[in-house]
Amino acid sequence: GCTLSSAVAAFMARGMQLENAVRQAKHYVQESLQAGARFTMGKGHGPLHHAYRYWNASEMSIREDSGASGRSSNR
Description:
Layout: H1 2-13, H2 18-36
C-alpha cells in the first residue's frame, strides 16, 4: 500500500495523469516484488526491491545465511 501510493504520487508529480500514474505504479510494485523474491527474510514472500532498476546483482554478493549480516553494531 505505502509503496503503491508513493509511486502513484511520484508519477503524478512528474506530470502523468492519474490513470497512467496508477498503471505505471502497479507495474513498478510488481517488478519490485519479483526482484525482491530472491531475498529470503523471515517467513513472508520477501521484501520489495525498490531499487531493482539500478541494481547490478553481479557486483554484490548476497549472503545465504541470515544469521550473519556482516554488520557491526555500536552498542
